[in-house]
Protein backbone atom coordinates (compact mmCIF):
# COMPACT_ATOMS: atom_id res chain seq x y z
CA UNK A 1 0.00 0.00 0.00
CA UNK A 2 1.58 3.25 -1.13
CA UNK A 3 0.84 6.88 -0.34
CA UNK A 4 2.54 9.62 -2.34
CA UNK A 5 2.49 13.29 -1.35
CA UNK A 6 2.60 15.95 -4.07
CA UNK A 7 4.36 18.22 -1.58
CA UNK A 8 7.90 19.50 -1.48
CA UNK A 9 9.86 19.87 1.75
CA UNK A 10 13.40 20.69 2.81
CA UNK A 11 14.56 17.19 1.86
CA UNK A 12 13.39 17.23 -1.76
CA UNK A 13 12.61 20.79 -2.88
CA UNK A 14 14.58 23.56 -4.55
CA UNK A 15 12.16 26.08 -3.05
CA UNK A 16 13.96 27.90 -0.20
CA UNK A 17 10.57 28.50 1.46
CA UNK A 18 9.65 24.80 1.58
CA UNK A 19 8.78 23.48 5.03
CA UNK A 20 8.59 19.97 6.49
CA UNK A 21 5.31 20.42 8.40
CA UNK A 22 3.05 18.64 5.92
CA UNK A 23 5.15 15.62 5.01
CA UNK A 24 6.31 15.07 8.58
CA UNK A 25 2.66 14.83 9.62
CA UNK A 26 2.11 12.12 7.01
CA UNK A 27 5.35 10.33 7.92
CA UNK A 28 4.37 10.20 11.57
CA UNK A 29 0.96 8.73 10.75
CA UNK A 30 2.51 6.08 8.50
CA UNK A 31 4.94 5.10 11.25
CA UNK A 32 2.11 4.92 13.79
CA UNK A 33 0.03 2.71 11.50
CA UNK A 34 2.91 0.40 10.63
CA UNK A 35 3.76 0.01 14.32
CA UNK A 36 0.37 -1.65 14.84
CA UNK A 37 0.47 -3.85 11.74
CA UNK A 38 -0.29 -1.54 8.82
CA UNK A 39 -3.62 -1.44 7.00
CA UNK A 40 -5.33 -4.79 6.62
CA UNK A 41 -2.07 -6.44 7.59
CA UNK A 42 -0.13 -4.64 4.84
CA UNK A 43 2.63 -2.12 5.60
CA UNK A 44 2.18 1.39 4.29
CA UNK A 45 4.89 3.03 2.18
CA UNK A 46 5.23 6.79 1.94
CA UNK A 47 7.04 8.99 -0.57
CA UNK A 48 6.98 12.71 -1.33
CA UNK A 49 7.44 14.34 -4.73
CA UNK A 50 8.39 18.00 -5.01
CA UNK A 51 5.61 19.73 -6.95
CA UNK A 52 5.91 23.21 -8.43
CA UNK A 53 2.77 25.37 -8.62
CA UNK A 54 2.74 25.81 -12.40
CA UNK A 55 4.34 24.87 -15.71
CA UNK A 56 5.68 21.64 -17.13
CA UNK A 57 7.12 20.69 -13.74
CA UNK A 58 3.58 20.07 -12.47
CA UNK A 59 2.98 17.33 -15.05
CA UNK A 60 6.44 15.89 -14.45
CA UNK A 61 5.80 15.66 -10.71
CA UNK A 62 2.43 14.01 -11.27
CA UNK A 63 4.04 11.48 -13.62
CA UNK A 64 6.66 10.66 -10.99
CA UNK A 65 3.92 10.17 -8.41
CA UNK A 66 1.91 7.85 -10.67
CA UNK A 67 5.01 5.80 -11.49
CA UNK A 68 5.00 4.72 -7.84
CA UNK A 69 1.50 3.22 -8.35
CA UNK A 70 -0.04 4.99 -5.35
CA UNK A 71 -3.08 3.74 -3.49
CA UNK A 72 -3.90 7.40 -2.86
CA UNK A 73 -2.29 10.81 -3.25
CA UNK A 74 -1.82 13.54 -0.64
CA UNK A 75 -1.64 17.24 -1.47
CA UNK A 76 -0.93 19.46 -3.22
CA UNK A 77 -1.04 22.37 -0.79
CA UNK A 78 -1.41 24.93 -3.60
CA UNK A 79 -4.78 25.46 -5.27
CA UNK A 80 -2.90 26.59 -8.39
CA UNK A 81 -1.32 23.14 -8.61
CA UNK A 82 -4.59 21.33 -7.90
CA UNK A 83 -6.36 23.32 -10.62
CA UNK A 84 -3.56 22.65 -13.10
CA UNK A 85 -3.75 18.91 -12.41
CA UNK A 86 -7.53 18.57 -12.57
CA UNK A 87 -7.72 16.79 -15.93
CA UNK A 88 -4.85 14.48 -14.98
CA UNK A 89 -6.50 13.63 -11.65
CA UNK A 90 -9.76 12.67 -13.36
CA UNK A 91 -7.88 10.62 -15.93
CA UNK A 92 -5.74 8.79 -13.36
CA UNK A 93 -8.69 7.74 -11.19
CA UNK A 94 -6.63 7.82 -7.98
CA UNK A 95 -8.19 9.28 -4.80
CA UNK A 96 -6.48 12.47 -3.71
CA UNK A 97 -6.69 14.38 -0.43
CA UNK A 98 -5.67 17.91 -1.39
CA UNK A 99 -4.68 20.53 1.17
CA UNK A 100 -5.81 23.82 -0.37
CA UNK A 101 -8.80 26.04 0.39
CA UNK A 102 -10.03 27.08 -3.05
CA UNK A 103 -13.82 26.81 -3.25
CA UNK A 104 -13.61 26.15 -7.00
CA UNK A 105 -12.39 22.65 -6.07
CA UNK A 106 -15.72 21.76 -4.45
CA UNK A 107 -17.29 18.68 -6.04
CA UNK A 108 -19.97 20.75 -7.77
CA UNK A 109 -17.61 23.69 -8.36
CA UNK A 110 -16.21 24.66 -11.75
CA UNK A 111 -13.01 22.72 -11.05
CA UNK A 112 -14.30 19.92 -8.85
CA UNK A 113 -13.52 16.23 -9.25
CA UNK A 114 -15.17 13.11 -7.80
CA UNK A 115 -11.65 11.87 -6.99
CA UNK A 116 -10.52 14.93 -5.02
CA UNK A 117 -11.33 15.81 -1.40
CA UNK A 118 -10.15 18.82 0.58
CA UNK A 119 -8.81 18.50 4.11
CA UNK A 120 -8.99 22.23 4.88
CA UNK A 121 -12.00 24.55 5.25
CA UNK A 122 -12.86 26.68 2.25
CA UNK A 123 -11.07 30.01 2.01
CA UNK A 124 -14.27 32.04 1.92
CA UNK A 125 -15.56 30.19 5.00
CA UNK A 126 -12.43 31.08 7.00
CA UNK A 127 -12.67 34.74 5.96
CA UNK A 128 -16.35 34.88 6.89
CA UNK A 129 -15.61 33.42 10.33
CA UNK A 130 -12.74 35.88 10.84
CA UNK A 131 -15.14 38.73 10.08
CA UNK A 132 -17.83 37.39 12.41
CA UNK A 133 -15.22 37.06 15.15
CA UNK A 134 -14.01 40.64 14.62
CA UNK A 135 -17.51 42.05 14.92
CA UNK A 136 -19.26 39.77 17.43
CA UNK A 137 -16.36 38.86 19.74
CA UNK A 138 -13.96 41.79 19.41
CA UNK A 139 -16.80 44.26 18.98
CA UNK A 140 -15.35 46.12 15.99
CA UNK A 141 -17.84 48.60 14.52
CA UNK A 142 -15.70 49.49 11.50
CA UNK A 143 -13.59 47.00 9.56
CA UNK A 144 -10.69 47.41 7.16
CA UNK A 145 -9.64 44.82 4.59
CA UNK A 146 -6.18 44.19 3.14
CA UNK A 147 -6.00 41.46 0.49
CA UNK A 148 -3.51 40.02 -1.94
CA UNK A 149 -4.51 40.51 -5.59
CA UNK A 150 -4.86 36.81 -6.38
CA UNK A 151 -7.76 34.35 -6.33
CA UNK A 152 -6.93 33.70 -2.67
CA UNK A 153 -7.42 37.36 -1.81
CA UNK A 154 -10.56 37.68 -3.92
CA UNK A 155 -12.16 34.64 -2.29
CA UNK A 156 -11.21 36.07 1.09
CA UNK A 157 -12.89 39.34 0.14
CA UNK A 158 -16.06 37.44 -0.77
CA UNK A 159 -16.04 35.72 2.62
CA UNK A 160 -15.43 38.97 4.50
CA UNK A 161 -18.35 40.68 2.78
CA UNK A 162 -20.58 37.69 3.53
CA UNK A 163 -19.77 38.02 7.23
CA UNK A 164 -20.14 41.78 7.58
CA UNK A 165 -23.87 41.97 8.32
CA UNK A 166 -24.43 45.65 9.25
CA UNK A 167 -20.77 46.45 9.96
CA UNK A 168 -19.29 48.87 7.39
CA UNK A 169 -16.12 48.05 5.48
CA UNK A 170 -14.43 51.43 5.72
CA UNK A 171 -11.31 50.63 3.67
CA UNK A 172 -10.58 47.86 1.15
CA UNK A 173 -7.07 47.73 -0.33
CA UNK A 174 -5.43 45.08 -2.52
CA UNK A 175 -1.71 44.57 -3.06
CA UNK A 176 0.68 42.42 -5.09
CA UNK A 177 1.57 38.99 -3.73
CA UNK A 178 5.26 39.99 -3.71
CA UNK A 179 4.73 43.43 -2.15
CA UNK A 180 7.65 44.77 -0.14
CA UNK A 181 6.14 48.07 1.05
CA UNK A 182 2.58 48.34 2.38
CA UNK A 183 2.92 51.71 4.10
CA UNK A 184 0.17 53.35 2.05
CA UNK A 185 -2.26 50.47 2.39
CA UNK A 186 -1.83 50.32 6.17
CA UNK A 187 -2.13 54.12 6.45
CA UNK A 188 -5.49 53.95 4.70
CA UNK A 189 -6.79 51.63 7.43
CA UNK A 190 -5.87 54.17 10.11
CA UNK A 191 -7.24 57.13 8.16
CA UNK A 192 -10.57 55.35 7.70
CA UNK A 193 -10.85 54.64 11.42
CA UNK A 194 -10.83 50.84 11.12
CA UNK A 195 -11.26 49.24 14.55
CA UNK A 196 -10.01 45.87 13.27
CA UNK A 197 -8.28 44.85 10.05
CA UNK A 198 -8.76 41.59 8.16
CA UNK A 199 -5.48 40.91 6.31
CA UNK A 200 -5.87 38.16 3.69
CA UNK A 201 -2.29 37.96 2.45
CA UNK A 202 0.68 35.62 2.18
CA UNK A 203 2.99 34.70 5.08
CA UNK A 204 5.55 37.23 3.84
CA UNK A 205 3.08 40.10 3.38
CA UNK A 206 1.43 39.31 6.71
CA UNK A 207 4.77 39.62 8.48
CA UNK A 208 5.36 42.88 6.61
CA UNK A 209 2.00 44.36 7.63
CA UNK A 210 2.51 43.39 11.28
CA UNK A 211 5.76 45.35 11.30
CA UNK A 212 4.15 48.23 9.39
CA UNK A 213 1.31 48.37 11.94
CA UNK A 214 3.93 48.76 14.67
CA UNK A 215 5.81 51.46 12.75
CA UNK A 216 2.59 53.46 12.37
CA UNK A 217 1.56 53.09 16.01
CA UNK A 218 -1.35 50.75 15.25
CA UNK A 219 -0.47 47.86 17.54
CA UNK A 220 -3.74 48.36 19.46
CA UNK A 221 -5.79 47.63 16.33
CA UNK A 222 -6.66 43.90 16.09
CA UNK A 223 -4.93 42.44 13.04
CA UNK A 224 -6.58 39.25 11.75
CA UNK A 225 -4.97 37.00 9.15
CA UNK A 226 -5.70 33.66 7.45
CA UNK A 227 -4.32 30.22 8.26
CA UNK A 228 -0.66 31.04 7.59
CA UNK A 229 -0.67 33.05 10.85
CA UNK A 230 -0.56 29.66 12.58
CA UNK A 231 2.78 28.64 11.03
CA UNK A 232 6.01 29.18 12.95
CA UNK A 233 7.55 30.59 9.74
CA UNK A 234 5.17 33.56 9.99
CA UNK A 235 6.24 34.35 13.56
CA UNK A 236 9.87 33.99 12.50
CA UNK A 237 9.26 36.49 9.69
CA UNK A 238 7.89 39.03 12.16
CA UNK A 239 10.93 38.59 14.38
CA UNK A 240 10.01 40.44 17.57
CA UNK A 241 7.43 38.37 19.54
CA UNK A 242 6.13 41.56 21.17
CA UNK A 243 4.74 42.68 17.80
CA UNK A 244 2.45 39.64 17.69
CA UNK A 245 0.42 40.43 20.80
CA UNK A 246 -2.63 41.78 18.93
CA UNK A 247 -2.38 39.45 15.94
CA UNK A 248 -5.19 36.95 15.40
CA UNK A 249 -5.55 34.16 12.87
CA UNK A 250 -8.34 32.07 11.36
CA UNK A 251 -6.65 28.67 11.34
CA UNK A 252 -7.91 25.18 10.60
CA UNK A 253 -7.00 23.95 14.08
CA UNK A 254 -4.56 24.84 16.83
CA UNK A 255 -2.83 21.66 18.02
CA UNK A 256 -0.69 23.50 20.57
CA UNK A 257 -3.79 24.75 22.41
CA UNK A 258 -6.87 22.52 22.27
CA UNK A 259 -8.02 22.49 25.91
CA UNK A 260 -11.15 20.43 25.23
CA UNK A 261 -9.20 17.45 23.84
CA UNK A 262 -6.13 16.41 25.88
CA UNK A 263 -5.18 13.77 23.29
CA UNK A 264 -4.34 16.59 20.87
CA UNK A 265 -1.84 18.04 23.34
CA UNK A 266 -0.27 14.62 23.77
CA UNK A 267 0.06 14.30 19.99
CA UNK A 268 1.57 17.80 19.80
CA UNK A 269 4.20 16.90 22.40
CA UNK A 270 5.02 13.62 20.66
CA UNK A 271 5.44 15.32 17.27
CA UNK A 272 7.63 18.08 18.70
CA UNK A 273 9.84 15.57 20.48
CA UNK A 274 10.21 13.51 17.31
CA UNK A 275 10.89 16.28 14.77
CA UNK A 276 12.28 19.08 16.91
CA UNK A 277 9.71 21.75 16.07
CA UNK A 278 6.10 22.55 16.92
CA UNK A 279 3.60 21.04 14.47
CA UNK A 280 1.28 23.36 12.58
CA UNK A 281 -2.29 22.66 11.56
CA UNK A 282 -0.78 21.44 8.27
CA UNK A 283 1.09 18.72 10.15
CA UNK A 284 -2.12 17.68 11.91
CA UNK A 285 -4.12 17.63 8.66
CA UNK A 286 -1.64 15.42 6.83
CA UNK A 287 -1.51 13.11 9.85
CA UNK A 288 -5.30 12.95 9.79
CA UNK A 289 -5.34 12.40 6.01
CA UNK A 290 -3.42 9.15 6.39
CA UNK A 291 -5.68 7.98 9.21
CA UNK A 292 -8.75 8.92 7.17
CA UNK A 293 -7.52 6.68 4.38
CA UNK A 294 -6.98 3.81 6.80
CA UNK A 295 -10.52 4.33 8.11
CA UNK A 296 -12.21 4.13 4.72
CA UNK A 297 -10.03 1.26 3.46
CA UNK A 298 -10.67 -0.88 6.53
CA UNK A 299 -14.37 -0.04 6.52
CA UNK A 300 -14.68 -0.98 2.84
CA UNK A 301 -12.42 -4.01 3.21
CA UNK A 302 -10.72 -2.89 0.02
CA UNK A 303 -8.01 -0.55 -1.25
CA UNK A 304 -9.66 -0.35 -4.66
CA UNK A 305 -9.59 3.30 -5.85
CA UNK A 306 -13.35 3.48 -6.34
CA UNK A 307 -13.96 2.01 -2.88
CA UNK A 308 -11.70 4.62 -1.30
CA UNK A 309 -13.39 7.40 -3.28
CA UNK A 310 -16.84 6.24 -2.23
CA UNK A 311 -15.73 5.88 1.39
CA UNK A 312 -14.45 9.46 1.45
CA UNK A 313 -17.64 10.66 -0.21
CA UNK A 314 -19.75 9.12 2.57
CA UNK A 315 -17.35 10.02 5.39
CA UNK A 316 -19.02 11.37 8.52
CA UNK A 317 -17.97 11.83 12.13
CA UNK A 318 -14.33 10.76 11.88
CA UNK A 319 -12.36 12.01 14.91
CA UNK A 320 -8.90 13.26 14.01
CA UNK A 321 -6.27 15.52 15.53
CA UNK A 322 -7.19 18.67 13.60
CA UNK A 323 -10.96 18.17 13.52
CA UNK A 324 -12.98 16.11 16.00
CA UNK A 325 -15.61 15.28 13.38
CA UNK A 326 -14.51 15.14 9.75
CA UNK A 327 -17.43 14.80 7.33
CA UNK A 328 -17.69 15.26 3.59
CA UNK A 329 -19.58 18.31 2.39
CA UNK A 330 -19.31 18.81 -1.35
CA UNK A 331 -15.74 17.58 -1.54
CA UNK A 332 -14.43 19.33 1.57
CA UNK A 333 -14.00 17.10 4.63
CA UNK A 334 -13.96 19.91 7.19
CA UNK A 335 -15.43 23.37 7.65
CA UNK A 336 -14.00 23.98 11.12
CA UNK A 337 -12.33 27.35 11.73
CA UNK A 338 -10.39 28.13 14.91
CA UNK A 339 -9.75 31.74 15.87
CA UNK A 340 -6.50 32.19 17.75
CA UNK A 341 -4.42 35.04 19.14
CA UNK A 342 -0.75 35.43 19.96
CA UNK A 343 -0.16 35.96 23.66
CA UNK A 344 3.42 36.23 24.89
CA UNK A 345 4.57 34.65 21.65
CA UNK A 346 2.21 31.65 21.92
CA UNK A 347 -0.78 31.18 19.61
CA UNK A 348 -3.76 30.61 21.93
CA UNK A 349 -7.24 29.45 20.92
CA UNK A 350 -9.99 32.06 21.34
CA UNK A 351 -13.03 30.51 19.68
CA UNK A 352 -13.86 27.38 17.67
CA UNK A 353 -16.41 27.48 14.86
CA UNK A 354 -17.18 23.79 14.48
CA UNK A 355 -19.11 24.07 11.20
UniProtKB/TrEMBL annotation:
Leucine-binding protein domain: residues covered: 20-343
Region spans: Disordered: 101-126
Keyword Disulfide bond in record: no
SUPFAM superfamilies reported in the protein's UniProt record: Periplasmic binding protein-like I
Keyword line: Signal
Family assignment from sequence similarity: Belongs to the leucine-binding protein family.
Protein name per the record: Leucine-binding protein domain-containing protein
Organism: Pseudofrankia asymbiotica
Amino acid sequence: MKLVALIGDKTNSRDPNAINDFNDGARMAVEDINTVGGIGGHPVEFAAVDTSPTGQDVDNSFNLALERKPTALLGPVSSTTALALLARINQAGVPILQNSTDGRLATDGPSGSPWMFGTRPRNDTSARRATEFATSVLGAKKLGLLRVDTAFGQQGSTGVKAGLAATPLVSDKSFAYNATDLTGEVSSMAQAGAQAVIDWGTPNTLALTVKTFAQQGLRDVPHIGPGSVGFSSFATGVGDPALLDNVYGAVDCNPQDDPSRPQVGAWFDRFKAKYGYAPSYGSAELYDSVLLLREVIEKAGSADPAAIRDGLKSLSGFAGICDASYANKDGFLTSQVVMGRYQNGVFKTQKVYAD
